[in-house]
Amino acid sequence: MEEFDVLSTLLQAQEPELYTIPTHARGPQGELPLTPKMLREWASGDLFGLTQNVGMGWEPAKVANKHILMLSTQGGIRAEDGSPIALGYHTGHWEVGRLMRAAASEFKHAGAVPYAAYVSDPCDGRSQGTPGMFDSLPYRNDASMVMRRLIRSLPTRKAVLGVATCDKGLPATMMALASLRRLPGILVPGGVTLPPEHGEDAGKIQTIGVRYVHGEISLEDAAQLGCRACATPGGGCQFLGTAATAQVVAEALGMAIPHSALAPSGEPIWEALATQSARALLHQVQLGMGMQDILTDASIRNAMVVHAAFGGSTNLLLHIPAIAYSAGLRIPTISDWQEINRLVPRLVSVLPNGPVDHPTVRVFLAGGVPEVMLHLRRHGLLDTSVKTCTGHTLDHVLNWWEQSERRQKVRARLLEADAIQPDDVIMTPEVARERGVTSTVMFPVGNIAPEGSVIKATAIDSSVVDEDGVYRHTGPARVFTSERKAMAAIKDGAIQSGDIVVLMGRGPAGTGMEETYQLTAALKHLPFGKHVALVTDARFSGVSTGACIGLVGPEALTGGPIGKVRDGDIIQITLDRENLHGELNVIGDGVRTFTPEEGAILLKERQPHPDLAPDPQLPDDTRLWAALQAASGGVWRGAIYDVDRIIEVIEAGKKALGI
Question: What NCBIfam families does this protein's entry cite (predicted)?
Fold first, then answer.
C-alpha cells in the first residue's frame, strides 16, 4: 500500500483540465502553394515536408520559399531574460542561440524559410584531468558526422549556416561546412567572454588547486577568483587557445565574414554578425556560389599563414588538415607547417604567449584577422585572389577593411576603453622583431620522437632561453603512465626544478589523446615550474605554456620509444626558437652517458614500461575512434576518418583472416 501512496504522490495532478484530452484538431487553415509540376516531380518526402512546415506554424503560402538550414552547438536552456533554467556545459555554447535567432529573423525577413538544428559540444576546460577528456577529440569526428547527416537529411536546403564557438564544436562545424562542395555555406563564430575587471583569466583560474596546495593563494582567494573569472556568460575563453584560434582560422579560410572572430559575446556588434552573415549567405545563393569556391588549397595555406602570425594553438595542426580533407583538398604536411612558420612572423601580442598578455577582446578591437592580414598582404604572404563568403575576393575585402569606418571605430574604442594602442596588440613585422617576438610552432625529433612531436616554442619562458635563442635542458626523467599520478607528484612536491616529466600512454590508443593542460598550467604558476619540461604522447590545450612537447610519435602504445623511457634516464632537450629546429633524446640511463644514436639502440632493445596500458576507463567508442584514425594516417593527417583507407585495411584484414 505504501508503494501505491508514493506513486500517487509522484503522479498527483491538481489541475482538472489535465484530463480534458482532445482527440482531433482543426489543423492549419489555407492551402499549400502546390503546382502540377511539383506534384508530378517532387519526392513524397519533399511534399510531406511542406505539410509538416505548416503544422509547425509557418505561413502556408511561404513554405516553399528557399529553405536555409542553420546548425549550432547551442547548449543549456535560457529564460527570456537570459537567466539559466538548465545550464549548458560551457559559456561557449550558452549564448549562441541569440545568434541563431538573429540569423533566422533575417532569413525570414528576406522571405526564406530557416530551419534550426543543434549538435551541442563538451567543454575541454570542464573535462581537464577527468575521464571526460577521453571523449574530447573523438567527439569532433562524431559531431561532424552527425552534422553532415543532418545537412543531407534536409534535402530541400539551399544553403547552410553554422554557429559554433569552442575547441571541438567549432572544428566539427567547419568540417561539416567544408563538405558542402556545391552548396553555399557560412560560419558565424560564437565570440569570446570578457575578462573580469579585477581577477584572473579562465586559463590561470584552472590552477587554483595546485597553487593553494603550494601556499601560493588562500582558500578565500581561490573562492573569490574562481567566482568571477568568466566575467560574462557567453563566448570562448579570453585567451588565444583552441577555441579562439579556431575562430581566427574560420575567418582566415574565408568561411566567416570579415572581422567576425573574437567578438565579445552578447554585445550588439556580436549579434549583428549573425544578421550580416545571413545576408552574405543569401548573396552566395544569388551568385550560385558553393563552399568549393571558398575552400581551396590556397585558402587552406592562407589559414596556416594567419595561424602562424597569430601564434595559435597547436591543436589546429589537427583541425586544419581535417577541414582540408573534408573539402576534398590536399592535406597539409609537417613540412608545410615548418615552411610557413619559418617564413611568417608572429604579429599578435595576446594571452597566453605575450609578450604582453592582452585578452582576446583587445585583439578584436585592434582589428582582428583583417588587420593581421593587412600586414601579411604587404609582405606578400597571402594569396588574396581567393574568394570569401562575402562573394568578393580577399583582396577586395582587405581594401574595404583598410578604409572602413568599422576599423577606425573599433581601434579608437580600444584606446578609449583600455588606453591600449592597437598597434601594440597587432604589430608590424618590424616592431614584432624589435620586441623579440618569435614564430610559434616547431617539430622536435630525436630518439624519443622519431616520427616527430610538436611544441609552441614561444610559450617557453624567455628567462630560461639562452642568448642565442636556444632552450637547452638536460635532466632526469620522471616517468608517469597516468596524468592523475603526474599531477599528484607536482602537488606533493615530488617534481623538482630540473626534472623532465615524461607522461606516456596518453595518445589516441591510451586515452583518445587527452589534453594535459592541468599539468602545464600548474608548472606555469609555480615558482620552479619554468625549470621543468614535459614530454608526452598526449596533446596540450591551446593555452598551455612552458617547455611542453606533445604529440610524440609513435605513441607509446603502438611501440613508440617514449614508452620505453625509464625513471632516472637522462634526457637532453634542445629547441632552437630562431631556426625552429629541436631535438629530444635519451643520452643517459643514470649510470652512464651516451650519444643519441646509442640511446636509440638502447630504447629499441628495451621492453615497454611495465605499467603501460590503455586507461582502464577508456570508452569503447574512443577505442574505435583511435583505430579508425590510425588506419587513416593518424594524428598528423588530422585524426580523420579516411573511408577509402579504412575500407582497404578492413578488406586486407578479412583476407588475412580468411573471412
Answer: yjhG_yagF (TIGR03432)
Picking from 470, 549, 513, the residue whose alpha carbon sits closest to that of residue 623 is 513
Q: Which of 530, 531, 548, 528 is nearest to 539 (CA)?
A: 548
Work out the average pLDDT over 407-427.
Answer: 98
| Distance between CA atoms of residues 347 and 282, nearest Å | 34
* Residue-wise DSSP of 408-429: HHHHHHHHHHH---HHHHB--H
Q: What are 619's three cell numbers?
A: 570508452
Residue type at 51? T
Q: What is the pLDDT of residue 294?
A: 98
446-319-313 Cα angle (round to 5): 65
Confidence of residue 520 (pLDDT cuts 50, 70, 90): confident
Query: Which residues are identified as catalytic?
Result: 541
Instruction: Compute the distance between CA of residue 348 and CA of residue 310 in angstroms, rounded to an integer.
Output: 5
Strand segments (E) across 492-640: 500-503, 533-536, 548-553, 570-576, 581-588
Residue 575 near residue 582 (C-beta atoms within 8 A): yes
Rounded distance, CA 323 to CA 329, Å?
9
| Pairing relationship of beta strands 157-164 and 185-189 according to DSSP bridges | parallel
Q: Which of 62, 3, 4, 1 is nearest to 31 (CA)?
A: 62
The per-residue DSSP string of 134-185 comes to GGHHHHHHHHHHHHHHHHHT-TTEEEEEEEE-STTHHHHHHHHHHTTTTS-E
Task: Check residue 93 and report its DSSP letter.
Answer: G
State residue 511's pLDDT score: 96
DSSP calls for 510-538: HHSS-B-HHHHHHHHTSTTGGG-EEEESS
Cell numbers at 234, concatenated: 557567453
Nearest CA to 243 out of 301, 308, 184, 192 is that of 192
- pLDDT for the residue 353: 85
User: Which residue type, as a one-letter code, is found at position 452?
Assistant: G
Q: CA-CA distance, 165 to 539, in Å (whole number)?
A: 20
Q: Which of 391, 322, 387 is nearest to 178 (CA)?
A: 322
Asked if the model's pLDDT at residue 190 lies above 90, the reply is yes
